[in-house]
Amino acid sequence: MRLLFLAALRPHTGNAVTAQRVRDHLEAAGHVCILKDAFDFGSPSEIADLIQAEALQAALALHLYRGGRLLQGHGIPFGIIFGGTDLNEDVNQGEKNEVMGKVLKEARFAVAFTESMKEMARLQWPHAQGKIYVQSQGIATAPNPAFNWNAFLQRAEIKQSTDNLHVFLLICGLRQVKDPLYLVDAFAEWHQEEPNVYMVIVGPEAMGLEVPVLARDIPGNAAVVKHEVTGLLFSDPQEFVQLAKRLLSDPALEKEIVANGRRYVRTHHSWRVERDTYERLVRTLEGSPED
């Protein structure tokens, strides 16, 4: 099939990475997948022109509101993938909520990344519960064998011996909504007490790389990280410092968290399972709904 895939494609964001990975899955199944930024289109009529020009047969959208609303009424079947914004922000705005409900009525399937996202969607739009599927995001990490840790530390102006150095990496988009400076003040105080601890902020997966995870206790993180099992969850900067100190002083805890996290990723975030799921769901876009 010739597929249109709409997503928010700002570089180096989770949405862009997810969209590119799903596109790769679909193309591996033999489909032609035309990936477009939803923000490049001001109205459904522009989508209609694209569908005609590219002879598109079906569509997929990442984000029920941002992308899904542009796919209505074109006479081609489509599916959607829920974004965090859909269920954490847009759902609370009456007009957007209504639009998203109508999109779901027309969509043949909807994908939620977690069971909690599925439940939130089911409560908002009960009519769609039979078409919502859970597929965790697949993870395929590729560590760089040429990476030089000492050279990295030098570039970061960290002039400490690696023998007793503890570096905490914050991996997130450098955007206000991600609040990348949330821990800075508390960490700075800790660094004054113990100069061998550092926090490095890097723009966009740690369990899969066998690194212990500390995550802020918010719904999206708590759906993936189970406290004291696959990682540690903190509610405020001071609790982060407490848990980080505990992790550094308890090698057995670190070893257990790393092992549990590795098993969790292999079981629940399989790249192959994700590929199989999207290939299967996209096949439902072929033919009429009754087929």
Describe this structure in words.
This protein starts with a strand and ends in an 8-residue tail after the last helix. It has 291 residues and is an alpha/beta fold. Strand 9 (214-216), helix 8 and strand 10 form a beta-alpha-beta unit. Helix content is 41%, strand content 16%. The protein is built from eleven helices and ten strands.
Helix content: 40-55%
Q: In angstroms, what separates the terminal alpha carbons?
A: 16 Å
Morphology call: elongated
Low-confidence stretches: none
Radius of gyration: 21 Å
Number of separate helices: 11
Mean pLDDT: 91
Strand order of the largest sheet: 2-1-3-4-5-6
The helix/strand class is alpha/beta
Let me know the number of strands: 10
**Sheet bearing the most strands, described?**
6 strands, parallel
Strand-residue fraction?
A: 15-25%
Order of helices and strands: EHEHEEHHEHEHEHEEHEHHH
Task: Write a concise synopsis of the structure shown.
This protein is α/β, with parallel strands linked by helices. The protein has helices at residues 14-28, 44-54, 84-88, 94-106, 115-124, 149-155, 184-193, 219-222, 237-249, 251-268, 271-283, and strands at 2-7, 32-37, 58-62, 78-81, 109-112, 132-134, 166-171, 197-202, 214-216, 232-234.
Give short descriptive properties of this protein.
291 residues, alpha/beta, two-stranded parallel ribbon, 11 helices, 10 strands
Topology (SSEs and partners):
Blueprint: E1 2-7, H1 14-28, E2 32-37, H2 44-54, E3 58-62, E4 78-81, H3 84-88, H4 94-106, E5 109-112, H5 115-124, E6 132-134, H6 149-155, E7 166-171, H7 184-193, E8 197-202, E9 214-216, H8 219-222, E10 232-234, H9 237-249, H10 251-268, H11 271-283
Parallel strand pairs: 1-2, 1-3, 3-4, 4-5, 5-6, 7-8, 9-10
